[in-house]
Write a structure and sequence with these properties.
lipopolysaccharide transport protein A fold; 2 domains; 19-stranded antiparallel beta sheet; elongated
């Protein structure tokens, strides 16, 4: 266990344990006593504090079962505190590894940040000491008019940076959809995202394909302000198809710049290209 954690942990346990002392038979007129409760904690509160007295994180549960270095919890509430806000994670159940400071959460896992980001997943591993959350399962992140869904995700402290591993779909209000095979790296603090492999943008103004795409968002509206594309760039608009090695599009001015062997062809409206393939055939539930 980290020395600072050992020094800073405060533990409050309200314990109801059966079998302590000699059992006493109930009076003859009383109904028989029910089964003896198992060795369990009825309420659990574990917190870690920094050297300056600030609370770093806290784990709560309504019941818990102690089993060596592992604590089994139900109705889990885990909160991490930072200088710029906090994150609260809830789950139906979980286990806390006291040695590694890991919390494995299961069942309706939901994380809510103080700045309005919501993360949901069937399960999540939270490293309390590093304040990093990860899951191999389908994960959804919602913030303002932006919804991101992917298979597998890792979030750094306060979920300011989230990496979606594969099969990513992003819906941007009001009517833009971006998909890629992944990964997708989202930096919420800098309001930008980077898409990798078979990237496609579907928008009423046209469709875009590329090997990699960087997107910048407006800090207030979360709408796309700039798109930069690299590798096999193909832009389809009604009666027009543009191709290049690179491209940059400014949404406010409507300016499109093609870089590297650019070409533009005109003709009847073309059928959309097929959606990017999946790596292993798995699809979102």
């Amino acid at each position: 266990m980290h020395p600072r954690v050992i020094h800073a942990i405060a533990l409050l346990l309200i314990v109801g344990v059966a079998g302590c002392g000699r059992p006493v038979a109930p009076p003859a007129d009383d109904p028989p006593a029910g089964p003896a409760p198992s060795d369990a904690i009825q309420a659990f509160n574990l917190a870690s504090y920094a050297d300056d007295g600030r609370k770093r994180w806290e784990v709560l549960g309504t019941t818990a079962d102690m089993a060596g270095a592992t604590i089994h919890l139900t109705d889990v509430i885990a909160t991490t505190f930072g200088e710029k806000g906090h994150v609260t994670v809830t789950a139906n159940e979980g286990t806390f590894d006291r040695e590694r400071q890991h919390v494995q959460l299961q069942g309706d896992v939901k994380a809510v940040t103080s700045d309005g980001t919501t993360v949901t997943a069937p399960s999540m591993l939270w490293d309390a000491d590093r304040q990093v959350a990860s899951t191999p399962e389908w994960t959804t992140v919602q913030r303002g008019g932006l919804t991101v869904r992917g298979l597998g995700a890792t979030g750094t402290p306060q979920f300011k940076n989230v990496r979606f591993h594969e099969q990513v779909r992003v819906d941007v209000s009001p009517s833009t959809t971006i998909t890629c095979r992944g990964p997708l790296e989202v930096d919420y603090e800098r309001h930008r995202a980077r898409f990798w492999r078979e990237v496609r943008v579907q928008d009423p103004r046209g469709d875009v394909w590329a090997d990699r795409m960087d997107v910048r968002l407006d800090p207030t509206s979360q709408r796309i302000t700039q798109v930069q594309c690299w590798g096999h760039v193909s832009i389809h608009r009604p009666n027009q198809v543009a191709r290049a090695r690179r491209a940059r599009y400014e949404t406010r001015s409507g300016t499109l710049v093609l870089i590297g062997h650019p070409s533009v062809t005109y003709g009847p409206e073309r059928q959309p290209m097929p959606s990017p393939g999946r790596m292993d055939g798995r699809t979102a539930p």
